[in-house]
Amino acid sequence: MFGFISRRIAMALVVMFVVALISFLLFRFVGDPVNQMVGIETTPEQREALRQRLGLNDPVLVQFFRYVLGAIQFDFGNSYQFKQPVADLIGRRLPATLELSFASAIFALLLGIPMGVYTGLNRDSWLSKMFLSVSLVGISLPTFFIGILFIFFFSVTLQWLPSFGRGEVVALGSFWDTGFLTISGLKAIILPAITLGLYQMTLIMRLIRAEMLEVMRTDHIKFARARGLPNRSVYYIHALKNTMVPVITITGLQLGSIIAFAIITETVFQWPGMGILFLQAVQNVDIPIMAAYLLLTAFIFVFINLIVDILYVVIDPRLRTERGRA
Amino acid sequence: MTDNTPTVSGSEASEAPRSAMARFLDSDLLHSFLSSKVTVLAAFTTVVLMLAALFAPLIAPFNPFDLAQISILDARIPPIGMEWSDSRYLLGTDDQGRDLLSGILYGMRISLAVGFLSVAFAAVLGISLGLISGYVGGRTDAIIMRIAEVQLTFPAILLALLIDGIANGIFGNIDRETWAIWILTFSIGLSFWVQYARTVRGSTLVEKNKEYVQAARVIGIPAWIIMIRHVLPNVLGPVLVIATINLALAIITEATLSFLGVGVPSTQPSLGTLIRIGNDFLFSGEWWIAIFPGLALAILVLAVNLLGDWLRDALNPKLR
Amino acid sequence: MRLKIASAALAMTLAAGTQVNAETLKFAFQGTYNQLDPYSLNETFTMAMHGNVYEGLVRRTADLQIEPALAESWEVIEPTRWRFHLRKGVKFHNGNDFNADDVVFSANRVRAEGSDLTTRIAADVKVEKVDDYTVDFVLTGVNPILHSEWSTWYIMDKEWTEANNAVKVTSASDTNPNYASLNTNGTGPFKIATHEPGVKTTFTVNDGWWDQKVHNLTGVEFTPIGSDATRVAALLSGELDMAFPIPVQDIKRVDSNAGTSALTGPELRTIFLGFDQKRDELTYSNIKGKNPFKDVRVRKAFYQAIDVDAIKAKIMRGLSEPAALMISPFLFANSGDFSRYPYDPAAAKALLAEAGYADGFEVGMDCPNDRYVNDEAICQATAAFLARVGIKVNLNAQPKAKYFAKILASGGFDTSFYMLGWTPGSFDSYNVLLNLNNCRDDKGAGGPFNLGGYCNPRVDELTKMVLSENDEEKRNSMISEAYTILNNEVSHIPLHQQGLAWGVSDKVTLKQRADNEFHFKFVVKN
């Protein structure tokens, strides 16, 4: 058991190292950061001196190891645009993105699960077909377009909800600013959360539906029915319980795509999170931010994967040898 | 060797592939297709749109990619039926004076091309790696699955942003029109292969311990032939389902990337690029520039998704 | 630092709950306001934001005339000695007195290593303190436009800067941002209360400001909103008092919306196209072994093939002024003597045929897609116009970071045909002639932004004469001669001066400056 976990952790570290290497190498090609740092009238000589001071003229390997050494100590360098430590910047933006992701996940689960159960149980009902089709529309339009349409209707035309930002935030301690405690903060999160959550909602609904359809045919549900348990308790206690394991797994693994899609949602709604920070960094060739962002998302992903793997083994010892080999 | 393999393995392995093929052409499948009006409609729509895209040069009133045919003086003409409309432009024109109907037909061609190519790329890569991973096992399997894990940490959008950045660095000297589509295809495809690999690997693990495969191995049939002949047909069903859903996802991803500024060049717009351009004119009352391409995209993706849905249910033996 | 921002934000939240924030100006801009050191980045928006907090010896009025600010008056006591008399009784935000030491200190700091504003004062200018409120600038040659860029040379407090170890300018490469890039201490009408780059910056009023205040604000809240649609939506829905820039297509909507209107005006920036005239073979073309742009007939054919009036009507929606010169007519007195070559595709075709390109040729074009008003759309339209005279343009439109990295000196002037915009920082033709039209070498020395490498020795000669000529009329005729040469030789294709478009709520009145700088001190909110 201990051997397995330490082996998995070693694997996770290797993955992180590879991600670090890849992202670092990629950024060598993205563009010239010096151009972004200086005004248009700076002479070529001054630019060259700047490159020298930034260490951009060193061999790529030297730059990479300098970077990894720093990253291990949570030092990702300073942002070229903001002239502030990247770790601080990301730390300050993290709450906004996490709150948005959380709200969108809640939205996706609260709507996705009941709709999934319903469509799974009433496969051929008229309402099921409507749920399925309507939810498909949600993934048939690009996120940015849905966001703009939302703003058009709910902010400009109806003036119900704000079109940008987080509203008022309240500081919880020194690390977390939350928008959940003010009216304006809650209003501000509705549109972005729905925009971001639509896709996940559709996914969860369809997953639950498929699982329900399968579980309903398994023997123990048939037995439960045969034993005369009332339908409702069969559906909700036995069937739903059996669908939850894959749902939780997939939802966890979808985190990566939530974070990626947050880039677009945050851009459309000017949500001051990590996604918009990353996109600005890409446009301005702010390499330290880009690299740190990639490392962070990779870390979150690998970490969740690791937990899931370990949980599997804890829950089901039979998997030990099989997964241990894999 | 190639002479006697079919006869030897053919008789031994017949049940596996035949059952898969049989499942495919089973009258149940056909029946389930015909009994669902929504599916028939979706299939019909998909076929019509694909044909329209394929034959765009014959159908479209203009060639929107030929700059000499575009006049800026015709910019932003509303669709037929509105004031100031022009009988030449059924759906109106965009901000450059491009006929929107032609733009949509040609744009769909590009969107579908990116979609199909990236799905094909992902499928070929994923299936090969999945087969190898499952069949060879051991260290190879571990390495491939580890790569898959690294891959999963880069969602399609991130990946495309990165690859576009590199491509700019490398091909910056060649004009963008020539490589943009290939880069998009490559980066979207690259982010999809893991799903195929995992599915195929799973089936391969199950299949490779079956007697007929063991038998084929014993008589010395090369591994790759065993895999292609006996394992592949069994995974075609799930692969087809993934491919359909990925096709829809690829088209949407291309549109999204265009919004982020790494799509195809605006002189040869895809559906997504048309929407991105039209986005800027939503508030100014020129809604048709975004809405018509948006509708076309939604209908296309919806139809493909519905087909995928039906296919998934129909090919799932547990549900029949 | 972190704690301070959090508690300040909390204080803001509480304050907002109790007081009527009718006098808080909320506005948004397309880009971000990053670091606060006034010498770190020479970029219009950043400099304008600094200008609400810091002040220079001189400043520009709403219609861009130079007027006294921290200097009450100045005189040229010898041709090469300028004397500035400083305003007495001015205090920095921290209570320190403003005096000659601060000016000498700031003059040294703005020219120090790491500064992005080294051109504000030439390196060989000596700055001498005469007494506490008098400073002399001793030049090595005559320069009638010495102070023309000083409205954005902001004076810093010597004591404050030294006490906080911020004497060294926070340059792009500094690993440790210094105090001055995170904090401010100016003499201006506003103070920065909270600053979270890329998210929000809030300002409070400096009650001790030396000048008569026109505004009635109690605070300012700035949010960067990159997405055009979102920025316009936030203005239309009343969440903002002011937003800029407004995309030209949305001006009508902003005007027709109840409660908002668009404030438009001419900008000083000139948008133009340039050709590679230096290489012997174009990098991006199907013509091998020669460079068609070396032939003035080809350049003129391109010029006449493009219909700027159609671009104005359809892309700019009337909000642009077709340009005959590389400088705004507001900045050059003799502009009226010049006019554009007429749009004439037939003549363009004839010129191409005459030059030996009857069947046209292919050329790659570089264009930004997030820098100027409708830049990509203009380039696309240009490509379409040129297609009609047989030129096939392969358009490469990119975000500005990648675009500038490619076409500027640092990218080796890697372009054959490009679009660029230019506002002379000094509001004067000398800047245009030198930067855009003087002969350059491969590294850019000579004419650093003459990307195409146009070269005419007479233009260089005139440029030097213009610099040291004190007589206005003589100077203008020299400039005219230079522009006439540029026009005859089609060194570039000037397209237009783009328009400014600010979206303003009916609740506020303000003044729009043609250099696109937004100053809160002109804002009245009711």
TrEMBL record, chain A:
This is Peptide/nickel transport system permease protein. InterPro entries: BPD_transp_1_N, MetI-like, MetI-like_sf. Its main location: membrane. Residues 94-312 form the ABC transmembrane type-1 domain. The keyword Transport applies. It is a multi-pass membrane protein. Gene3D superfamilies: MetI-like (1.10.3720.10). It is found in: Cell membrane. Keywords: Cell membrane, Membrane, Transmembrane, Transmembrane helix, Transport. Pfam families: BPD_transp_1, BPD_transp_1_N.
Automatic annotation (TrEMBL), chain B:
It is a multi-pass membrane protein. The keyword Metal-binding does not apply. It comes from the Bacteria. Pfam families: BPD_transp_1, OppC_N. It is found in: Cell membrane. The chain crosses the membrane at residues 38-60, 110-132, 152-171, 178-195, 239-262, 287-311. Belongs to the binding-protein-dependent transport system permease family. PANTHER family: ABC TRANSPORTER PERMEASE PROTEIN, OLIGOPEPTIDE TRANSPORT SYSTEM PERMEASE PROTEIN APPC. This is Peptide/nickel transport system permease protein. It comes from Pseudovibrio ascidiaceicola.
UniProtKB/TrEMBL annotation, chain C:
Pfam families: SBP_bac_5. Gene3D superfamilies: Dipeptide-binding Protein, Domain 1 (3.90.76.10), Dipeptide-binding Protein, Domain 3 (3.10.105.10), Periplasmic binding protein-like II (3.40.190.10). Keywords: Signal, Transport. CDD domains: PBP2_NikA_DppA_OppA_like_2 (cd08498). Its main location: periplasm. The keyword Signal applies. It comes from the Bacteria. Belongs to the bacterial solute-binding protein 5 family. This is Peptide/nickel transport system substrate-binding protein.
